[in-house]
Amino acid sequence: MYDSELSDFSDDDDYDALIQQGSASMYRSDSGTQSVPDGAETVFVKDNVTIHPTQYASEGISGRLRLFKQGDSLFMTWIPYKGRSSNERLSDKDKNLYSIRDLPFSNVRSICGHFRRMSWQYVILVTSSGIAYPTFYFYSGGVREFLATIKQHVSLVRSSEDANLFLVNEFQNPLQRTLPLDIHGSVSVGNLPPPTSVASGAVSTDFQEENDKDMNSRYSEPQTIGKQRQKHHDPARELSIQVLEKFSHVTRFAREATSQIFGESFGDVFASHETKHSQLIPMNQPVSKDTSRVNEVSTAPSSREMDKLSLVWGKPRQSPLALEEWNTFFDSEGRVLDSLAARKRIFYGGVEHNLRNEVWPFLLEFYSYDSTFAEREYLMSVKKTEYETLKMQWQSISKDQAKRFTKFRERKSLIEKDVVRTDSALSFYDGDDNPNVGLLHDILLTHSFYNFDLGYCQGMSDLLSPILYVMRDEAQSFWCFASLMERLGPNFNRDQSGMHSQLFALSKLVELLDTPLHNYFKQTDCLNYFFCFRWILIQFKREFDYDSTMRLWEVLWTHYPSEHLHLYTCVAILRRYRNKIIREQMTFDALLKFINELSSHIDLDSIIRDAEALCICAGENGAALIPPGTPPSLPIVDPDASIYQPIDDDEVL
């Protein structure tokens, strides 16, 4: 059965179309200076393929990606030529540092290819030994052509478990080698490597030795994800359901499955996103034993000094923003004169509850700070009509249609089950036939039609509930929620890319800001930080009471002093209980139980102060550890290209 699946692509329309086009798009002549070995044939060339060593989109390194055939083998090279600004060219030294030369596809295990309509295009290559290369961004398109060319020369099959995952030279049961939300047999769990710690300046000797050995290989390799270990389990079929819908009931088995996902899909975080100040470890160089350079560059204090940070940088909380003061931020026509000053004021004090319905649309970016009173009034009238039109799309579906519309039935059923359980202890949502519960249902179902690709996942009702509670208007609540989901939607992606990138960034920030805690998590096999999954997924909604949650959210939505303050909030909470965690020698299961039991026992104001202090302390070093596009950052989009790419989600190659 699987042999035929590996070789039969007769139903792949995109691939057939590319073959019929001939050499126009896939086999282009090489007019550049890059050379290939004698006797090799170039089969694909793509310029402006970019990697991002830091989180800043403007600092990408662009290069030429080439596929060439030599004998019966297919190879890939990527040679950078354009540096960190549009007109800067790389030096020969930097070219040699970042180049990837003669990577044989016989050593490639899988390729994760993303070419969705409302997102950027990129690929991640993972080798047979579990090594992930930096993410290659195709901002001008070309991922499908890239994959189609590979499929002409090696065995390439799309995973039946993940539509974005393609298995290379896989002649076993493909289900056994996909990213395992459904796991068969053993699970390979990759431990994260101990990269250079900015806080301590220490470098792992074991990691260095591995890199020294890799230098003798034929082609350049990025940092390894870690030694692979095999853990055997009796797999349960029910664990194939989305982890997003089971975040409150995480088991050891799910943790290890997630470790595998992390190891294969996002190992490039460690290879391509290091600190800005020359702390990048080149792909083809070992880690230096000389730590003097690291200590010279780093300004981060030690963990002991970090304990006193909130006394130095974490400013005291202020009283909530009131209407009279809020009005002082506007000019006569209704424009906010200084949006940064307004956001800073909200960050340090929050907003009085009766003012939130005016302030939140600005924080959620539904209203522009430079819009006038008249423009906002007109926008709301237009959006109200648009919402009613969207709502009619599902209201007009007859019972007969619904029988033939599986996705609609499934989403509607899930939403109906979730809304009756969402914040039912709150009087606003309490009671049978509560109209506000009906509004939750209608808004969520309408949004699943508005963003049909994202659909509905458990947890979204938690994010909508406070918005509806504050806005008390159906249409306005919908558009504020839709704006929030533009940033947090990746948390609910099927491939969990948004969650993966945030958990990886969190692990790097803990390593930077609290080395003892990082080392403890490393010893106890907790470096995947899956115990923080719920915090990030629904923005601490279950950790604080309702009013405190709203205060925290409006602080996070200011994006001051960082878009990713929620990650520093995670670090602040973990640091607060670090001594208890280490003293009691908590393993993953004990740690997960402890974290869940912290709910309603965390002092919000002190944690916000600590998070601010940690963010200021980490500075650019911390910002550089967070990959580009990590939620709640908006996706990276080529300014010269539309985000609405004419690619159907069901198309393959």
Show the helix and strand layout.
Layout: H1 2-7, H2 13-21, H3 23-26, E1 41-51, E2 61-70, E3 73-82, H4 92-98, E4 100-104, E5 108-114, E6 122-127, E7 136-138, H5 143-153, E8 156-158, E9 165-168, E10 187-190, H6 205-214, E11 228-231, H7 252-265, H8 268-272, H9 292-297, H10 303-306, H11 309-312, H12 323-327, H13 339-349, H14 356-363, H15 373-395, H16 399-403, H17 406-419, H18 435-450, H19 460-471, H20 474-488, H21 497-513, H22 515-523, H23 533-537, H24 546-557, H25 565-576, H26 578-583, H27 588-597, H28 604-623
What does this entry look like structurally?
The protein is an alpha+beta fold and 653 residues long. The protein is 43% helix and 10% strand. The chain has a nine-stranded antiparallel β-sheet with strand order 4-3-2-1-7-6-5-9-8. A two-stranded antiparallel sheet has the order 10-11. A hairpin with an 8-residue loop joins β6 and β7. α15 packs across α20 (474-488), α21 packs across α25 and α25 packs across α28 (604-623). The protein is globular and about 75 Å long. Residues 1-34, 172-301 and 638-653 have low confidence and may be disordered.
Structural class: alpha+beta
Strand fraction: 5-15%
Low-confidence stretches: 1-34, 172-301, 638-653
Biggest sheet strand order reads 4-3-2-1-7-6-5-9-8
Describe the largest sheet: 9 strands, antiparallel
Total number of β-strand segments? 11
- Which term fits the overall shape? globular
Radius of gyration: 25 Å
Helicity, in percent?
40-55%
| End-to-end distance | 22 Å
Helical region count?
28
Mean pLDDT across every amino acid position: 74
